[in-house]
Amino acid sequence: MFIEIDFNSNETIYSQLKNRIILAIATEEIKQGDLLPSVRELALQAGINMHTVNKAYAVLRDEGYVTIGRKGAVINVSDDAFKARQELFMQLKPAIAGALSKNLSKDECIQVLQEVLDSF
Amino acid sequence: MFIEIDFNSNETIYSQLKNRIILAIATEEIKQGDLLPSVRELALQAGINMHTVNKAYAVLRDEGYVTIGRKGAVINVSDDAFKARQELFMQLKPAIAGALSKNLSKDECIQVLQEVLDSF
DNA sequence: ATATATGTTATATTTAGAATATAACACAAA
DNA sequence: TTTGTGTTATATTCTAAATATAACATATAT
Fold it and tell me: Is this structure's pTM higher than 0.90?
């Protein structure tokens, strides 16, 4: 799992890192039980600070993707389908509002979602 | 169109304001050609600074939702379906990655989208 | 015409978060 | 015993967000 940071992005570094790892879980590049790289190692590889990696890991823990023990951060996805659906709803709402405002039809929104799903 | 700001939100004020207006366009609470409140009036109503409203309007202009003339900000949605689809795709991707990581099925993602669409 | 409200621009300050830089500690494994 | 790990603490730098005033030209309403 190679991490590449875009230092010109508006998105914060720890957020990029977090989303990159979530993507890796979604594509099964990394799986339940896998150990993430140490904060120092990943920081070195990505060319960022140790604490920035630490923060990304902490957020991943808070959002239910990993548990952090003495060995490090381990993929451990929380099994709460209801909460997951709720979060997805919240994230989809503003995105769909933008699309409908731009006069995309509801069918077109479904089409785009299908394209996204097919990309996994 | 009453604006309420959550001062405890992580989302920036101008972003909340921007998204609130996009939502109003999507629900047809406001329509093409409508004039938005003056920056001073809206700032007063929402309890925020004039310049914060001004920034929200500027971003809405940059994202193709309004044009700003001497009379103020007027709803004028850019008609570029391709760009709109592209932006929707970009916004949907990380949201779907999160959902799939949390072991939601693709069908469940479609279900949630349907719920969102039905809320409009 | 006068007063008012508008957008616009400019400058300055404050605040908060992001990111980095060191440093130190306890613990486990090699 | 050394090395690598997570963890904690402190301090600094940097940037964006938000606010505070102020001024200007213009358009509208009285």
Answer: yes
